[in-house]
Every structure is written in structure tokens, then in C-alpha cells.
């Protein structure tokens, strides 16, 4: 039997990190193909923890301000990052691509580990081939710091790439906002994204396509953080077979 995959978790005391610690521990007890090697949070020395734990992968659910430093630490140590933290910028992804190549170590960035959300993105891409007019509403708990969600940004990118024919209508001539931001922010392809932050949500997203006389709504709701764990465990199990920088869990399905 191969050695279990040694998993380090960054942000282990956070909402998502605690869930990952539990899921990896349960998977370890059930199948013994992975083991929880390190739990790292604010104030711990990541490099030391990764070395001491002989970690194979680093599951990162931290905060946008520290995630890049964590990855700059993990990749030179040949530890494969599996990143759920959102808020990475295009320049960060470029840097990561270079680090992956330099250290011959892959890295997964997954804006959403929930399989249902990944399917929603795929269905949205299919719909966008026929329906060019679309807006995205994403709804998250009130403590989320970044807006829009990584999922919304990625969904817009995927829709923009798939929008083969048809030109979005855009707003009416002379349209204006009485309040700044009323029409949302513009993501890839000028797609409007509206971010809602309220207690009572974990992570939800609705993608609405409009056409003369009809609407198509695609919606996904994560009502519990357990929804993200099958995707995280899948990523752990596939980590060693990733090539370079991989963006999106859909690439592992
Ligand atoms: P959280 O605030 O509950 O947890 C973040 C944790 O990171 C905290 O425990 C904090 O102490 C810790 N931390 C801060 N600095 C650190 C450092 N230098 N090293 C290690 N740990 C450090 O946040 P959360 O709700 O768990 O979300 C974490 C991230 O995951 C956010 O970016 C969120 O958007 C993202 N998220 C992604 C998915 C997905 O499927 N990809 C799902 C949910 C949330």
C-alpha cells in the first residue's frame, strides 16, 4: 500500500480550516490514504511546520493578505498547494505559474470546492453559447472580506470565454446609477456581478440569463461548509498528478 499523503492545513483554526481538519482526519481513519500532518494558523511558522511534518500537500484556507506568502514558502519546499483562499489577482497567478515551473511542483487554485458550484459554472458556460445577456448575483455570509467572490469572478471568466456569438445588449442609452454600485461591478466580459453579504448565507450564487420573453436562472447554494469537503479530498488524492498551475476544480473531474 502506498504511503498516505501527508496533509498540512493552513488556516486550521478558521471556519473552513476546521472543517478540512475534520474531513482529512475522517478520511484518514476510513481509508488511510491520507494523514493530517500539520495544522498551521496565524503566528505559526509555516516553513518549519511543513518541514517537520514532511508535508506532501498544503491545503490553504487563510486570508487574501497571507496566501501568497504561504505559497512562496510551500512551493520551494516542493509541497503542493491546494488553495481555497480567494482574492488572488492575475499578477499573483502569473507569479505562481513561474514558481510552479521553477520548483517543478504543481499548485491548484480552486475558487470553489463544492462540486455543485463547479457544475453550475459548467452549465453557465453551456448556456452562454446561446444567451449572451447575463448577470451574476453572489450571496455570502457577512464575514467574508473579499468581493466579489472568487467563484463569481471565475464564473464570469468562463462565461466570457464561452460566449461565442451574440453581443450583450448592455444598459439603455443614458442609463445612470442614482447610487454608485447599484448596477454591480463589472467582471470579465463586462459581466455585472452583484455581491450580497448577509447572515444566513454560507455561499450562494445565481447566474441569470435573459432573452426576449424568457429567463434562465442557474443557482447553487452551499448551506453547510461540509459541501466543500468532497472537493478538497478529491484534490488531495489527485495532487501528485496535477501539472503546473491548475485553476478550477473542474480540471480534476
Ligand atoms: P476564517 O477567517 O474563518 O479563517 C481564516 C483563518 O486563517 C483564521 O483562522 C486565521 O487566523 C488564519 N490565518 C490568518 N493568517 C494566517 C497565516 N499567516 N497563516 C496561517 N493561518 C492564518 O475564513 P474562512 O471562512 O475559513 O475562509 C477562508 C478563505 O477561504 C477565504 O478566502 C474564503 O473566501 C475562502 N473560501 C473558499 C471556499 C472554496 O471553496 N474555495 C469556500 C469557502 C471559503
Fold topology:
Blueprint: E1 5-10, H1 15-31, E2 34-40, H2 46-53, E3 57-60, H3 64-74, E4 80-83, H4 90-102, E5 107-109, H5 115-128, E6 134-140, H6 150-162, E7 185-186, E8 192-197, E9 203-211, E10 214-222, H7 229-238, E11 245-247
Parallel strand pairs: 1-2, 1-3, 3-4, 4-5, 5-11, 6-8
Antiparallel strand pairs: 6-9, 7-8, 9-10
Helix pairs in contact: 5-6
Low-confidence runs: none
Task: Give the N-to-C terminal Cα separation.
Answer: 24 Å
Heterogens: nicotinamide-adenine-dinucleotide
Number of strands: 11
Residue-averaged pLDDT: 96
CATH level-1 class of the largest domain: Alpha Beta
Strand order of the largest sheet: 2-1-3-4-5-11
Relevant terms:
binds nicotinamide-adenine-dinucleotide; elongated; five-stranded mixed β-sheet; alpha/beta; Rossmann fold; Dihydrodipicolinate Reductase, domain 2
Give your account of this protein's structure.
- With 253 residues, the chain is α/β, with parallel strands linked by helices.
- The chain folds into two domains: 5-109 and 226-252, Rossmann fold, CATH 3.40.50; 115-222, Dihydrodipicolinate Reductase, domain 2, CATH 3.30.360.10.
- It is 34% helix and 24% strand.
- It has seven helices and eleven strands.
- It has helices at 15-31, 46-53, 64-74, 90-102, 115-128, 150-162, 229-238, and strands at 5-10, 34-40, 57-60, 80-83, 107-109, 134-140, 185-186, 192-197, 203-211, 214-222, 245-247.
- The strands form two sheets. The chain has a six-stranded parallel sheet with strand order 2-1-3-4-5-11, with helices on both faces. The chain has a five-stranded mixed sheet with strand order 7-8-6-9-10, covered by helices on one side.
- Helix 5 (115-128) runs parallel beside helix 6.
- The model has no long low-confidence stretch (mean pLDDT 96).
- Nicotinamide-adenine-dinucleotide is lined by residues 10-11, 13-17, 40-42, 61-64, 66, 84-87, 110-113, 144, 203, 228.
